[in-house]
Design goal:
This protein is α+β, with helices and mostly antiparallel strands. 42% of the residues lie in helices and 17% in strands. It contains 19 helices and 17 strands. The protein has helices spanning 14-20, 53-68, 83-94, 114-117, 123-127, 138-142, 166-172, 187-201, 213-223, 239-254, 264-272, 286-296, 332-347, 349-356, 363-366, 369-372, 383-386, 401-414, 420-435; strands spanning 42-48, 72-78, 101-105, 118-119, 145-146, 149-150, 152-154, 156-165, 204-208, 228-230, 235-237, 276-282, 300-303, 315-318, 320-325, 359-360, 387-388. The strands form 4 sheets. Strands 8, 9, 12, 13, 14, 16 and 17 form a 7-stranded mixed beta sheet that branches. Strand 10 and strand 11 form a beta hairpin. Helix 2 runs antiparallel to helix 14 (349-356), helix 7 (166-172) crosses helix 8 and helix 9 crosses helix 10. It is globular, with a radius of gyration of 22 Å.
Length: 442
């Protein structure tokens, strides 16, 4: 997995952004798209940050959209994941010179100052294109609002899930008769499952990215119904529940049920070569494992995170979502074509889930008989209801600093280089340091 850099820089230099961006070679788009121009097509500019295997699927879908909408000239541009993309989006939106529509992480919506940098969308507009509030899970739909205004259209849910090697797990006796992984309830039951798998692999039960410990921490903290809320220069966190989540990591590493050190590449490789019978990574890794299966053989499937506490299968995750960057003026035809594009991507998101591994947020697709027959996607489709967004604060969310700061501490927990108690103290110190920083979009 890529390292997640800090959020974009300060917007206090708006005079620079509005007056000299083009001269500096930044290459921002013009002031909104126009109807007509050199052709009779309506041009729609789309920006995204999808440069991996899912990006190839989006490019394919864009081609399909263009073929079915000959009157719309879709101009899609992919920028570097994380900071490069969000910096470009913020700079363009601050002067009204961004794209017509952009693909963001929904967890980053409020950190993008939507009231000033994004244009709201009305539910009435969406209904004109066959999209309504009831087409999404409640948590995902609510996350699309800021200050009572709708600013985002959710495309998918992508989350931390549990992959398993059927061959190894069958030998370990942890499969159901239909070949799916046994569903466990509670920490000890899952540890027992990992011990059985480790007896087969001779090395680990599960693999995970020790640099991305925030994901496991947040999943296990939220399964305890732990809350983390932020106010003016302060925050609230349940220390006991946070410590319990960290202790699970320490115990798992101490017993050798998971690696004490593994970056994203090694984490996946442990699963591919059979050093671990399970791996906890994002659903976006499905194409890597499919490719390995095609080349060398890997009989795998996927399921949701196991329930450790209270019967919950909550997991850390996010959504890709469409937003409309602020325009100085909107051409009516362009706005209509832009919303037509967004609705098309939702209505055709079966391909997005099938090809990219992300679970469509649009429930008419996810709950359809066709999608529920799609394997292994259907087995983890419940993440739409169980995904837990990162805390609501500007330095949190995908490609933001909380992930990195906490992950750096938890990497030392997996390495058995620090105790859970010391790790909790360090995490709190780092959160307090982040709280003392000014938001870059205020």
């Amino acid at each position: 997995m890529p390292n997640h850099p800090s959020p974009p820089g300060s917007l206090s230099r708006r005079a620079l952004l509005t007056g000299t961006a083009a001269a500096a070679g930044i290459g921002l788009a013009g002031c909104g798209s126009i109807t007509g121009g050199l052709s009779d097509k309506t041009r729609v500019k789309q920006w995204n940050l999808l440069a991996g295997a899912d990006g190839a699927v989006m490019t394919e879908m864009h081609g399909n959209f263009s073929a079915e909408h000959p009157g719309i000239d879709l101009e899609a541009t992919t920028f570097g994941w994380g900071t490069p993309f969000y910096t470009r989006l913020v700079m363009g939106a601050s002067s009204g010179n961004a794209s017509d529509i952009a693909t963001i992480h929904l967890s980053r919506l409020k950190s993008l100052s939507p009231a000033t940098l994004m244009d709201p969308i009305t539910e009435g507009e969406l209904k004109d294109y066959g999209v309504a509030a009831e087409d999404f899970s409640g948590g995902v739909w609510e996350k699309s609002f800021a200050d009572g205004e709708l600013y985002a259209i959710p495309l998918d849910t992508h989350a931390l899930v549990n992959y398993y090697n059927r061959t190894v797990c069958e030998q370990a006796g942890v499969l159901n008769p239909d070949g799916t992984l046994l569903e466990t309830d509670g920490v000890e039951a899952y540890f027992d499952l990992l011990r059985a798998v480790k007896d087969v692999t001779g090395e680990y039960g599960t693999s995970l990215d020790t640099f991305a410990g925030w994901r496991q921490f947040w999943a296990w903290y939220r399964q305890q119904e732990g809350e983390m809320t932020f106010g003016d220069g302060d925050y609230e966190m349940d220390d006991d529940k946070a410590l319990t989540a960290i202790e699970i990591m320490y115990r798992m590493a101490e017993e050798g049920l998971c690696p004490t050190f593994a970056d994203g590449g090694q984490c996946a490789a442990n699963f591919e070569v059979g050093s671990a019978g399970l791996v906890q990574v994002g659903n976006w890794e499905i194409n890597r494992f499919r490719a390995f299966n095609d080349a060398q053989g890997l009989d795998f499937s996927m399921t949701e995170m196991p329930s450790f506490f209270n019967g919950h299968r909550y997991t850390q995750g996010d959504c890709h979502a469409f937003v409309l960057p602020r325009h100085n003026t909107w051409d009516t035809g362009v706005r209509e074509a832009t919303l037509e594009y967004a609705a098309y991507m939702l209505h055709n998101s079966f391909r997005w889930g099938e090809g990219g591994g992300h679970t469509p947020a649009y429930l008419p697709v996810t709950e359809s008989a066709e999608y529920q027959a799609l394997q292994p996607n259907a087995e983890y489709s419940g993440v739409v209801q169980n995904v837990q967004f990162d805390p609501d604060v500007w330095f949190s969310g995908s490609a933001a600093r909380l992930f990195d700061e906490v992950g750096g501490v938890l990497n030392q927990v997996y390495a058995l280089a620090t105790t859970p108690e010391d790790a909790l103290a360090q995490i709190k110190d780092r959160i307090e340091t982040l709280l003392a920083l000014p938001s870059p979009v205020d």
